[in-house]
């Protein structure tokens, strides 16, 4: 079971009524109004961490669901010409979104994709499924991948996610891009209590 992420609270005098939370690499960042009392901050942090975890859980299919999703994508976009032997999440891919072994039909998907939009995960699955048919990144490979209609959009999304840490370090400014890659959630702080806790 993964460790509970570190939580960093950032107070803002410009923030009046909203609370936001997102993942930034291995931590959760919660943005709160500067005028919150410590008690209000604690209640909202707990609420937003739970809310973010629930959303991520909805966006994190189990491995059997991941396999079924890949099989359906292969049927829909690759004419059913390939069926993976297995599809699983992995934690050791820090520079790649997915990988496969054509010899045994296995596909591995980076857990960094958890929480990203479903169409981004679908693109990575189609990419790896195409590699089960065609090694390398030649024209025949891209012809298969381009059958997935959101290929260019997903590639742009992933390029932005990959570039965000470099932009952060080169600009010396915190960017939300890394956080929005996994998920961002907002709530209004009317009355300064989390919904359901009033």
UniProtKB/TrEMBL annotation:
Residues 33-158 form the YgjP-like metallopeptidase domain. It comes from the Bacteria. Gene3D superfamilies: Metalloproteases ('zincins'), catalytic domain (3.30.2010.10). Residues 1-20 are annotated as: Disordered. InterPro entries: UTP_pyrophosphatase-like, YgjP-like_metallopeptidase. This is M48 family metallopeptidase.
């Amino acid at each position: 079971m993964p460790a509970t992420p570190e939580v960093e609270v950032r107070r803002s005098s410009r923030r009046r009524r909203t609370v936001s939370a997102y993942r930034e690499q291995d931590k959760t960042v919660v943005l709160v109004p500067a005028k919150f009392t410590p008690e209000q901050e604690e209640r909202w942090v707990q609420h937003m961490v739970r809310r973010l975890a629930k959303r991520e859980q909805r966006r994190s299919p189990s491995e059997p669901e991941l396999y079924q999703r890949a099989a359906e994508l292969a049927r829909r976009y690759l004419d059913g010409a390939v069926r993976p032997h297995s599809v699983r999440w992995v934690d050791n891919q820090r520079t790649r979104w997915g990988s496969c072994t054509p010899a045994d039909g296995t596909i591995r998907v980076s857990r960094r994709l958890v929480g990203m939009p479903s169409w981004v995960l679908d693109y990575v699955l189609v990419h790896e499924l195409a590699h089960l048919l065609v090694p390398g990144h030649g024209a025949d490979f891209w012809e298969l991948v381009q059958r997935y209609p959101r290929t260019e959009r997903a590639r742009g999304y992933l390029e932005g996610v990959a570039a965000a840490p470099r932009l952060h370090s080169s600009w010396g400014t915190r960017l939300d891009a890394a956080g929005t890659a996994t998920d961002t959630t907002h709530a209004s702080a009317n009355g300064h209590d989390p919904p359901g806790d009033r």
